[in-house]
Write a structure and sequence with these properties.
Layout (H helix, E strand, L loop, with lengths): L3 H11 L3 H20 L6 H16 L58 E10 L3 E2 L3 E15 L5 E9 L19 E8 L4 E4 L6 E3 L5 E2 L5 H4 L6 H12 L2 H6 L2 H8 L1 E11 L9 E10 L8 E6 L11 E6 L6 E2 L4 E4 L5 E3 L12 H11 L2
Length: 371
């Protein structure tokens, strides 16, 4: 069996309990006897290595297997009332209706269709008194970051839980906050004007219980399929999406716009600014050089921009999304300039991911999105 000096060395390195060392010593002895029966002998040094591995498996939770080969849960929260259902913010039945708004979250895919900059597992350290504005109830929250799934947040951060205020028609479905001190949650965050923000637009109450299992507190099947499962099940699904370049492109602002609108590339021939001070439209005449969608365009079109001015100038090469709802509609946020060096200069959200990159990067994305 192992020498006392070997056990002492391991104890000093890992500082495990006496019970754990005895357990490991016994397992190592059993393994050595197995090797003897096959005509092999382990050296003392090899026995030390084996024992160190065994102790590592015992004292490092993330490497400790359980039945079925599933890793044990290293993050736990509070006991959960599984009967609690958080409203979908539109009605009490947690079902999508014809007049529902776009911010209803029915699957985790919907998270990626919003401007989420971080996804974290966090413990609520403090909830401060909420402030009610005209449209929102804002609750300051202190979070202890236990794991960053997307982004690189660490330690404690200040965040804001934003819900709808009493001035809105859906107020009754919005309590001040669904979070509780000591609770552990999987939270999507974005950087707002005041700091990290948890918004009703992406809210799902993914809570981790005292056994490391999830509860979504929702009736949506795309979310409650994780109920009662280890939180790592959700994290693995999130990581699969984060590592899928095609999925991330399709759910980006550009990818969503590509599904909803027409995309053209051309040259600005003329810009007609509003004459009256109360006018809100700018008319941009564009000679089309390329179209990336199925709509058939004339060689020259006039796009109505719902802006009193525009970043575009006559002679600019541009790429832009247009809406066919009432003629051709657009705005700066849907447009990007292409300079003489074929570099993209974004006018807003739909082209921000390409800002400063070569026009070819936009073409590559288009070819990836086209069926």
């Amino acid at each position: 069996m192992m020498k006392k000096s070997d056990i002492k060395t391991i104890k000093e390195a890992f500082n495990p309990s006496e019970e754990l060392v005895d357990k490991v010593s016994k397992r190592a002895k059993e393994q050595r006897m197995t090797f003897r029966r096959s005509g092999l002998r382990l050296s003392v040094s090899m026995m030390v290595v084996v024992a160190m591995v065994l102790i590592y498996q015992q004292i490092i939770p993330g490497n400790r297997p359980i039945d079925g080969g599933v890793e044990t849960q290293t993050i736990t929260g509070l006991p959960i009332d599984t009967s609690l259902l958080v409203s979908d913010r539109l009605n009490d039945s947690n079902s999508k209706t014809e007049d529902s708004l776009a911010y209803v979250i029915e699957t985790i895919d919907d998270w990626f269709r919003h401007e989420i900059e971080a996804i974290v597992i966090a413990r609520v350290v403090e909830l401060r008194e909420p402030n009610e504005t005209e449209f929102s109830i804002i609750t300051p929250v202190t979070l202890e970051i236990l794991q960053s799934v997307k982004g690189d947040l660490k330690g404690q951060i200040k965040a804001f839980d934003v819900g709808l205020s009493s001035s809105t028609m859906y107020y009754e479905t919005y309590p001040k906050t669904d979070l509780r001190v000591g609770g552990v949650y999987v939270l999507p965050l974005y950087m707002g004007e005041s700091g990290w923000t948890l918004s009703y637009t992406t809210f799902v109450l993914f809570e981790i219980d005292d056994m490391g299992n999830l509860n979504s507190h929702t009736a949506f099947e795309g979310l409650n399929k994780y109920d009662g499962k280890p939180y790592t099940t959700l994290i693995e699904d999130l990581n699969k999406r984060l590592n899928d370049a095609t999925f991330m492109l399709k759910t980006s602002a550009f990818g969503q716009a590509f599904e909803m609108f027409e995309l053209i590339q051309g040259t600005v021939l003329h810009i007609e600014l509003p004459e009256a001070s109360n006018a809100s439209r700018t008319f941009v005449t564009i000679e089309i050089k390329d179209s990336f969608t199925n709509h058939v365009f004339d060689d020259v079109i006039v796009v109505q921009y719902y802006d009193t001015s525009t970043i575009l100038q006559e002679g600019d090469d541009v790429i832009l999304f247009v809406n066919l709802y009432k003629g051709y509609e657009g705005n700066d946020a849907w447009s990007a300039q292409i300079d003489a060096q074929q570099t993209i200069h974004s006018g807003g959200i739909y082209f921000d991911q390409f800002d400063g990159f070569a026009y070819q990067s936009v073409l590559d994305a288009i070819y990836q999105l086209k069926p």
